[in-house]
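Re: [help] complex structure
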Amino acid sequence: MICSILLLIILTSCVSGTFVVNVTQTSYQAEENHDITLEWTFTTNPHSSSNSLNIFCELITDLRSSVLFHLHKGVEVPESQDEQFAGRVQWDKDVLREGRLRLHVSRLRTEDSGLYVCKVFTSYGSNSGRCWLNVTATSPQQPESRGRIGLYCGLGLTAAALLAGCFCIFRHFLSRNQDF
Ligand SMILES: *[C@@H]1O[C@H](CO)[C@@H](O)[C@H](O)[C@H]1NC(C)=O
Ligand SMILES: *[C@@H]1O[C@H](CO)[C@@H](O)[C@H](O)[C@H]1NC(C)=O
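Output below.
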């Protein structure tokens, strides 16, 4: 009886000592062309080596899913990465041992918006964590209005220069008239 209770406790602790994958933030908000760092944390095991670690991260949208990061036996597999993310994803190798997966995504596009799911597989368990990213477009009117402000500034300066020039000539004439 005691033996079976002990066995049950051992078994449940094995199961409930579960492997978890958390996200540090459930949703991110960013602007187009900006950079962002998405972070997942997972249970570590001091007895397990990093080459038993497999990670698969995908962006899932209404239309499709695209791979942004793939780690196979502790080694990155760039061939798995979707063209959409080519050259735009970097990861922190140093913090992976601490159970932190940090993915830096640069030059964000609006189509990067969606659900990001990372599945982590280890010799002591596997699980997944998800977060949302919303990339908003920068308003296309901005450069135009900046151009207009520049134009108005230029016109204003020209007008000021003309006025100053007129004033100088006027003063010149005044002083000449006074000389006579
Ligand atoms: C995951 O989140 C839970 C609840 O906040 C926390 O207790 C646990 O330590 C976290 N685990 C990891 C590996 O981040
Ligand atoms: C994304 O952000 C914009 C601007 O803040 C907001 O209007 C929109 O509802 C957000 N979309 C999602 C899916 O969260």
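The chain has two domains: 17-136, 142-180.
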